[in-house]
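[Discussion] Sanity-checking designs against the backbone

I'm trying to build intuition for which residues belong where. Below is a structure token string of 1139 positions. I'd appreciate it if someone posts a full sequence so I can compare it with mine line by line.
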């Protein structure tokens, strides 16, 4: 049998076993292996044997994955009910399983198709939140309604950390701890806050050490013993690993050579030498902390200072000149060691092993930090309570508290133990330590062969989320030791249904060389698992290398552009994607795509801060908040809204670095030195911006910036709706962080904007997407292009505090923590350096897995584009940067580069080099000088009927609503979602009683205190109006779906949407309804509603297309305006017919 045949046979057996509902499994599902389909088949098989669907719990890691699974299960049931014949073998199996479920459905009156909410398919965060909120007092989560993340939660962490400084005003132990840490950090408050922020962000990992606080000296001593024991264990485990690698090749010959060297060194009086301590017939050292020095001696003997294998030894190493035989024997032993994978690195790492103890000074500061952390957590929870918010960590901690321990389960755990009979976990490789602990607690009462099962599926080779605390070692622990007392049988899928045969074999060849040879729980090492192509992919697939030499980003972009053109021309139905590690790697490519008019969709590649319309808005905001921000004012003066020449700007600020720009504008002598054009532009700009230059507590910063932007002509510079949407996102960001009409800290705005990633809208004929490698996980494309492989990305900033949680094969986690101190002091601390080295190893192995994820997205072709440097004036090649992806691929692609280099060298010699640098003054963009704000703006869209006689003198008045109205709309939308999901009974909604929650939500959205009352009143009136509106009650109450996520192909393009509400009426018509929180405070309401219907018709057409394909039911569409209590049907059928 061929290798592929053997793998195929194993795959068939694994898929068959996976559907045995009496057994528990953990399934490794490599890229393209049909993981989701198998998970759905297992889910259907379980539904067919339970008494009620709630007994089966499926947990995923993203809302999209949960919704996709739910939709695909319902789709399978619906096709089975309607008798739709499947095409493929695996679809036939799915239908057979669905038939069995429908039989149970009818027998037990489940009505799953009509009531999909009975299927318990949840994200791990949603499930944890549900547990915590089921016992709000016991869990400690309280009444938090909003879970925040990313830049928003970092702001809260900084606020909580800074709040601990207030303890300095109190004469107690807490003040002493704060003072001690600050003194140790040279009174660097920013560093102090950074320490606490880092600990708050991972506070669930510290609970075993700090608990609710280290209150006594005995508690402190216990914590010190535990941490030092952890360091000892880590050191001894590393020594044991070295011994296991060294012993097979050196146990026979090396000990007597060590004894020989020790004898000679002692004879020379070098008793302090590390090798001098080897006793006669002692053999190799033990893997004990007491032998750490002897291991260092072995490392010094076998390796050079740079960590390379030694080629010679001298008398200083215990080998005198007159004994060449001993030297030769040692070199022969070293030669044998060269062939042992991992031995050289492990020996070198011995030199970094730390002492297993803290000195008293280090421990004193570390203990102060431990004692301070509970205070910071208390401040954080105070802020959470005041604002009705929480974070994912708090949800996980609260869920764990509600579940209790494995030995003492809580009330919720016992209730779930009764309800849940079967557990499915998707993307198991992405579990964090806390989430794995949650699974253990959830199944604490389970025992082997009690009828309850666990089914975990994932691919450790695709574990790429360490930055989200994912710990791939947990997958290995579950595979080896099970979860709790439930053992899991290991299965591996082998078929790759996605990629062509040649690509699959290329993956097998390349990644078996790149990835580690063996799995290692502690190191986070994952070995490669081979796949086999399917019969219909034989002969297909190609990987093409595009070698470049000394190419700058622009040259590399041009080559990538050619590859894109080639891929798009291959087949007019093929899709193409460009995958990069960071957005900086496509900075030169995107302008070229726009210049060549190649349509593309950039998926969260660009930040808000990257686009021109926002750059100028940031400058405007900074100028309005801080008049002394000279750079912001100068940016505005050069922007298209003002358009001053460099010479005029220089003349204005020259020789004066003390006055602000607004003050300089009042200096008539200064202004007189400007050109007439510059004087006119400067005066006009300051006249227009004058009404908005001072904080307005009533209006709010968002509205202040918006109006100022209008006044200086900002909207006239926008090219399309996408840019307008960017502006609204920016203004919404301002609204969340502004206070009293200004920004307390401009840096906070920058932090937030860095997290606001943009995804451009894509037309139906757009076949090219650009995204990060992380975003591509779970997707597939006909052609995949990986550019800039030779370039490294900017490393993440070094953490101020370093620690590691190291899981072992028994599922225990040992934390090791570096000392606290200024960066310069820590650089030479052995423990800090050791932790950093382990962290680098983990990151390097995850980088290999990221490369695997990227390459395996390809169905037809994979293109690798990367540049390397040449040396000796272009005569030879240099190796790629060690931090680049190309360096990981180098053993496989080096020959391609060597062939390409020979051609490249010939071309260079013919054309010679040019080092000429050209400097070009940037082009000045500006509006026409006679521009003025519009007096009246006509409404776009079809012509309206003439106004009635009673209204003939009243102009139609549409205008952008203020921030208060927009926030009120957001909150009303949130209430409607809760009512539609039946989390709030519509008959028991009393608007006045919801005001407290509304106030918390509004505060969380950044509504200034002065506007809170008005927003709450507006929401209360809206809810009262909706509840009194028969059509509104009909929309909210009854069968259907709320916040329904759908994905599918519309006009040949993949679309993902979330439908606010699907309402099924008595006739079986499915109404696709989109909530619009618009308000209208002018005249001609019907005209406004007509305009909104026209504006959103295209969006509703996309919804209709996707939902019709999903449901097969008759569909009508409508908009519902909660703040207006207006329901407007939108006719999409005629337009769909035209298309």
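Best answer:
Here's mine. Compare freely.
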């Amino acid at each position: 049998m061929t290798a592929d045949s053997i793998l195929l046979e194993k795959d068939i057996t694994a898929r068959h076993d996976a559907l045995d509902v009496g057994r528990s499994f953990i399934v490794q599902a490599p890229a393209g292996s049909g993981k989701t389909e198998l998970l759905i088949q297992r889910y259907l098989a379980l539904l067919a044997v339970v008494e009620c669907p709630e007994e089966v719990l499926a947990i995923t890691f993203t809302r999209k994955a949960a919704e996709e699974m739910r939709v695909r299960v319902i789709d399978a049931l619906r096709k089975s009910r309607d008798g739709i014949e499947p095409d493929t073998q695996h679809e036939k199996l799915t239908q057979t399983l669905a038939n069995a479920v429908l039989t149970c459905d009818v027998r037990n009156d489940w009505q799953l198709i009509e009531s999909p909410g009975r299927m318990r398919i949840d994200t791990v965060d949603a499930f944890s939140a549900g547990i915590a909120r089921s016992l709000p007092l016991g869990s400690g989560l309280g009444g938090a309604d909003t879970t925040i993340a990313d830049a928003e939660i970092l702001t809260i962490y900084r606020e909580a950390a800074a709040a601990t400084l207030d303890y300095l005003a109190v004469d107690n132990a807490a003040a002493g701890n704060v003072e001690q840490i600050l003194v140790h950090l040279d009174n660097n408050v920013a560093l102090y806050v950074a320490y606490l922020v880092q600990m708050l962000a991972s506070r669930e990992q510290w609970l075993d050490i700090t608990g609710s606080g280290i209150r006594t000296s005995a508690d402190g001593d216990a914590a010190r013993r535990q941490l030092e024991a952890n360091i000892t264990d880590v050191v001894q485990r590393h020594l044991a690993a070295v011994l296991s690698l060294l012993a097979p090749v050196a146990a026979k010959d090396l000990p007597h050579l060590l004894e020989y060297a020790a004898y000679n060194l002692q004879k020379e009086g070098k008793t302090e030498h590390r090798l001098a301590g080897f006793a006669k017939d002692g053999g190799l050292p033990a893997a004990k902390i007491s032998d750490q020095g002897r291991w260092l001696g072995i490392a010094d003997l076998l390796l050079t200072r740079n960590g390379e294998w030694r080629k010679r030894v001298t008398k200083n190493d215990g080998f005198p000149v007159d004994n060449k035989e001993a030297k030769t024997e040692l070199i022969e032993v070293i030669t044998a060691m060269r062939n042992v994978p991992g031995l050289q690195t492990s020996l070198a790492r011995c030199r970094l092993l730390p002492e297993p103890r803290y000195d008293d000074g280090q421990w004193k500061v570390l203990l102060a930090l431990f004692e301070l952390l509970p205070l910071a957590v208390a401040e954080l929870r105070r802020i959470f309570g005041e604002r009705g918010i929480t974070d994912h960590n708090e949800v996980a901690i609260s869920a764990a508290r509600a579940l209790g321990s494995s030995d003492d389960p809580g009330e919720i755990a016992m209730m779930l133990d009764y309800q849940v009979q079967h557990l499915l976990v998707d993307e198991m490789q992405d579990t964090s330590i806390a989430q794995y602990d949650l699974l253990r607690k959830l199944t604490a009462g389970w025992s082997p062969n009690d009828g309850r099962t666990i089914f975990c599926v994932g691919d450790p080779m695709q574990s790429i989320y360490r930055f989200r605390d994912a710990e791939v070692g947990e997958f290995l622990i579950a595979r080896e030791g099970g979860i709790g007392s439930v053992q899991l049988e290991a299965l591996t899928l082998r078929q790759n249904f996605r990629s062509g045969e040649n690509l699959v074999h290329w993956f097998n060849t390349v990644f078996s060389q790149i990835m580690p040879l063996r799995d290692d729980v502690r190191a986070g090492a994952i070995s490669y698992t081979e796949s086999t192509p399917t019969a219909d992919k034989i002969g297909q697939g190609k990987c093409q290398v595009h070698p470049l030499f000394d190419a700058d980003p622009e040259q590399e972009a041009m080559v990538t552009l050619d590859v894109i053109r080639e891929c798009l021309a291959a087949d007019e139905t093929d899709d193409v994607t460009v995958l990069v590690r960071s957005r900086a790697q496509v900075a030169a490519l995107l302008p070229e795509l726009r210049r060549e008019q190649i349509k593309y969709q950039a998926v969260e590649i660009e930040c808000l801060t990257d686009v021109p319309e926002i750059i100028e808005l940031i400058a405007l905001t900074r100028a309005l908040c801080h008049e002394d921000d000279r750079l912001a004012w100068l940016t505005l003066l050069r922007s298209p809204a003002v358009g001053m020449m460099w010479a005029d700007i220089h003349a204005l600020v020259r020789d004066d670095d003390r006055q602000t720009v607004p003050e300089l504008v009042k200096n008539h002598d200064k202004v007189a030195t400007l050109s007439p054009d510059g004087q006119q532009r400067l005066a006009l700009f300051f006249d227009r911006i004058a009404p908005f230059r001072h904080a307005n507590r009533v209006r709010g910063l968002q509205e202040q910036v918006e109006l100022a932007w209008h006044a200086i002509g900002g909207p006239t510079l926008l090219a399309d709706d996408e840019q307008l949407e960017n502006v609204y996102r920016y203004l919404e960001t301002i609204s969340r962080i502004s206070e009293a009409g200004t920004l307390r800290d401009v840096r906070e705005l920058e932090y937030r904007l860095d997290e606001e990633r943009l995804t451009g809208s894509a037309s139906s004929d757009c076949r090219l997407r650009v995204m990060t490698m992380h975003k591509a996980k779970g997707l597939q494309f006909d052609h995949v292009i990986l550019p800039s492989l030779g370039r490294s990305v900017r490393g993440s900033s070094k953490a101020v505090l370093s620690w590691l949680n190291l899981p072992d094969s028994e599922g225990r986690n040992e934390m090791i923590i570096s000392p606290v101190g200024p960066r310069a002091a820590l650089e030479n601390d052995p423990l800090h350096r050791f932790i950093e080295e382990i962290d680098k190893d983990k990151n390097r192995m995850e980088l290999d897995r990221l490369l695997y994820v990227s390459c395996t997205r390809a169905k037809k072709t994979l293109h690798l584009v990367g540049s390397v440097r040449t040396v000796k004036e272009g005569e030879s090649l240099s190796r790629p940067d060690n931090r680049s992806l190309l360096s990981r691929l180098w053993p496989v692609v080096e020959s391609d580069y060597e062939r390409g280099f020979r051609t490249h060298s010939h071309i260079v010699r013919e054309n010679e080099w040019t080092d000429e640098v050209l400097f070009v003054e940037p082009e000045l963009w500006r509006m026409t000088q006679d521009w003025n704000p519009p007096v009246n703006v006509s409404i776009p869209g079809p012509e309206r009927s003439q106004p009635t006689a009673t209204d003939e003198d009243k102009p139609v008045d549409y205008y952008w609503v203020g921030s208060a109205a927009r926030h009120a709309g957001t909150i009303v939308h949130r209430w409607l979602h809760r009512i539609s999901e039946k989390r709030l009974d519509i008959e028991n909604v009393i608007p006045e009683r919801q005001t407290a929650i509304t106030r918390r939500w509004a505060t969380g959205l950044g509504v200034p205190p002065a506007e809170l009352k008005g927003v709450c009143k507006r929401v209360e009136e809206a809810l009262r109006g909706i509840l009194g509106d028969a059509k509104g009650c009909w929309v909210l109450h009854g069968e259907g779906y709320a916040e329904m996520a759908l994905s599918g192909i519309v006009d040949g393009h993949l679309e993902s949407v979330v439908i606010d509400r699907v309402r099924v009426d008595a006739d079986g018509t499915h109404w696709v309804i989109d909530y619009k929180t618009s308000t209208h405070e002018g005249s001609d309401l019907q005209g406004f509603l007509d305009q909104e219907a026209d504006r959103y018709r295209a969006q509703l057409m996309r919804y209709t297309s996707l939902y019709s394909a999903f449901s097969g039911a008759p569909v009508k569409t409508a908009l519902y305006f909660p703040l207006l209590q207006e329901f407007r049907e939108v006719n999409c059928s005629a337009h769909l017919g035209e298309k």
